[in-house]
Amino acid sequence: MEILSLKDSVEKDTFFRKLPILAEQLPRQIVLKKLLPLLASSLEFGSAAAPALTALLKMGSWLSTEEFSAKVLPTIVKLFASNDRAIRTGLLQHIDQFGESLSSQMVDEQVYPHIATGFSDTSAFLRELTLKSMLVLAPKLSQRTISGSLLKHLSKLQVDEEPAIRTNTTILLGNIASYLNDGVSIYVKLPAASLTAISQQSC
């Protein structure tokens, strides 16, 4: 890990893709006490490739909830501010692995402002990942953020050029309706026929 800064991008990528398997073969205490902190630091300071995120979450799964929150979560929160598209994509793809550990304050103040840029990304894949991440994150958002930001983004996605994104936006609105206050809920209420038509689908 200490000499990774001397490696080129291909070598780094290869190393980090193999790391989850290699970590399984090493003594658990060495991984958690030595390798995990180095990996977290490498990700934070940009010397680790995007595949390192998978390794970080793999190692993090061996920690208790309290240790995960102390040793892994701070790095994850910082990574949401990354301009690296691959890092952003990886975070969204794995959000179900750590989303529940994020506090409402973390999501509202530190995570969502960065994730929200994905709603208007030029990549349809990233727009859809951003949309799907709201299944995990929307319940942790404040009413102010939901009504002042999230619903505006979802309104635009309802007319997205991609049919799958339009459909999943409608599904998401139905799923998060219970988290909206009464006034907002009425505003975004969907026709019963629309909900019936997609009730068998999942976001």
From TrEMBL:
SUPFAM superfamilies: ARM repeat
HEAT repeats: 72-110
InterPro entries the record matches: ARM-like (IPR011989), ARM-type_fold (IPR016024), CIK-Related_Protein (IPR051177), HEAT_type_2 (IPR021133)
This protein's name: TATA-binding protein interacting (TIP20) domain-containing protein
